[in-house]
UniProtKB/TrEMBL annotation:
It is an enzyme of class 2 (transferase). This is Bifunctional hydroxymethylpyrimidine kinase/phosphomethylpyrimidine kinase. Residues 384-418 are annotated as: Disordered. InterPro entries: Aldolase_II/adducin_N_sf (IPR036409), HMP/HMP-P_kinase_dom (IPR004399), PM/HMP-P_kinase-1 (IPR013749), Ribokinase-like (IPR029056), ThiN (IPR019293). One of its GO terms (cellular component) is cytosol. Signal peptide: none annotated. GO terms for molecular function: ATP binding; hydroxymethylpyrimidine kinase activity; phosphomethylpyrimidine kinase activity. One of its GO terms (biological process) is thiamine biosynthetic process. Its EC number is 2.7.1.49, 2.7.4.7. Residues 19-261 form the Pyridoxamine kinase/Phosphomethylpyrimidine kinase domain. Gene3D superfamilies: 3.40.1190.20, Class II aldolase/adducin N-terminal domain (3.40.225.10). Keywords: ATP-binding, Kinase, Nucleotide-binding, Transferase. The keyword Transferase applies.
């Protein structure tokens, strides 16, 4: 008989409705909590019949059963934080307010009023009942429409969002996060207001309608972070980044717009080892091929992006790069995540246009390399770099790369930069998988050697 090895985790609680489509509500909350490293418990306030296209029916759970669920969880589990979602009626809001009034843990209130599909999820009478629940909250997380209903202020810009947040704090919330996803603009700005601070979280808007479950996911991530011991600002900062990735890589499910990807961050972390090994495989093939002809003055590097990478420190690369030797090439050190900046930024820019591109390498570029690429039948795009002092002319703005590889043409095999005074010309080879990248690099090296 084996000895068990228990895993001790913080506990979070969600008080919300069930979404039969799985993208929002209790289902989204529990997925997010698990992905955020906490054990999720639940109190179901209603059962909905819904999918990615809309809500067809709502069946509230009797309030006495809601209270019984809450008591069952809190009597047995050491809850570190809770969140509320869809409550539906004034009676339900009042019941939940009564339950959490003496709670020894922080409560995140997501004042769910309308589904992403546009279907109303809250009786108008319940809007007035929310004030008492907000007064019990550690963080309240309305979107622009909900903030307008609760405060009378339309948060159409950052200044108005701060004003709405201040009104919510005056109602008794310890912190108010006024979300900017429903406000117009190319950039989404979420504003966190506390009695002592005003913090804005800005990020580029993702051009997608697959945002089903976004509010539930954000509030659950905040609650999970609070249960793990973070303060409100750190909890919100981490949760906003979590949601940004979940929206950037949505799930293509159902016949409607689809759902946010609640497990994208967790699966991205799980993909790091595979990505490091894949980059190591490319390096081994370059060493075996003796690919001296590819190495530029700044050294050659290979980078690999995890499946849902968002930042340069999530890409694997050769630490210290690959250098020429008398007989071939060798890596200066091993492969690790976060070892590259310029080439990682380049690959992330390509992935903004083509998310299937996961691997890239930089190599020298001159007329001989151009002729070799032409002989191999490669598609090649050109981009002008923005070299910085001391960086060897490697810096290329994301905007410039995105313009170079923008559809309708398919992603090129290489993006080349002719350089300028003080900047070395470079080529950057791109591929969807490590084997393809290794094949392109070794074929290019062989073509150069045979010329």
């Amino acid at each position: 008989m084996r000895t068990p090895a228990p895993d001790v985790r913080p506990v979070a609680l969600t008080v919300a409705g069930s979404d039969s489509g799985g993208g929002a509500g209790i289902q989204a909350d529990l997925k997010t909590m698990e992905a955020s490293g906490v054990f999720g418990t639940s109190v179901i306030t209603s059962v909905t019949a819904q999918n990615t296209r809309g809500v067809s029916s709502i069946h509230p759970v009797p309030t006495e059963e809601v209270r019984a669920q809450y008591e069952a969880v809190t009597e047995d589990f050491e809850v570190g934080a809770a969140k509320t979602g869809m409550l539906g009626t004034a009676e339900m809001v009042e019941t939940v307010t009564d339950c959490v009034a003496e709670a020894p843990f922080p409560v995140v209130v997501d004042p769910v009023m309308v589904a992403t599909s546009g279907d109303r999820l809250l009786d108008r009478d319940a809007e007035r009942a929310y004030e008492d629940l907000i007064a019990e909250s550690a963080v309240v997380t309305p979107n622009a429409d909900e903030a307008a209903v609760l405060t009378g202020t339309e948060p159409t810009d950052e200044s108005a969002a701060r004003e709405a947040g201040e009104a919510l704090v005056e109602m008794g919330a310890e912190a108010a996060l006024v979300k900017g996803g429903h406000a117009p603009g190319e950039e989404v700005v979420d504003v966190l207001v506390t009695e002592k601070s005003r913090v804005s979280f800005a990020h580029e808007r993702v051009d997608t309608d697959a945002t089903h479950g976004s509010g539930c996911t954000l509030s659950s991530a905040i609650a999970a972070n609070l249960a793990r011991g973070m303060d409100a600002t750190a909890a919100v900062d981490s949760a906003v980044a979590f949601l940004q990735r979940a929206i950037r890589y949505p799930l293509d499910v159902g016949e409607g717009p689809g759902s946010v990807h609640h497990l994208a961050e967790m699966r991205d972390r799980a993909g790091r080892t595979e990505t490091v090994e894949a980059v190591e495989g490319v390096v081994d093939k370059l060493v075996s091929a003796g690919a001296r002809a590819l190495v530029p003055e700044v050294g050659l590097n290979v980078v690999g992006a995890t499946p849902y990478a968002e930042r340069p420190d999530e890409l694997a690369a050769v630490e210290g790069r690959i250098a020429r030797t008398k007989s071939g090439v060798r890596p200066n050190r091993g492969v690790r995540v976060g070892a590259s900046s310029h080439l990682s930024e380049f690959l992330l820019a390509v992935r903004e246009v083509d998310s299937t591109a996961r691997f890239a390498a930089n190599c020298r570029f001159d007329d001989d390399v151009a002729d070799a690429m032409d002989a191999l039948g490669w598609s090649v795009a050109r981009v002008e770099s923005a070299g910085e002092d001391g960086d060897g002319g490697e810096s290329v703005s994301r905007a410039a790369v995105r313009r170079a590889v923008e559809p309708p043409t398919e992603t090129p095999a290489a993006v080349v930069d002719g350089g300028a005074v003080g900047r070395e010309p470079l080529a950057r080879v791109v591929a969807a998988d490590a084997d393809t990248l290794a094949g392109r690099l070794t074929s290019l090296a062989a073509e150069l050697d045979s010329a």
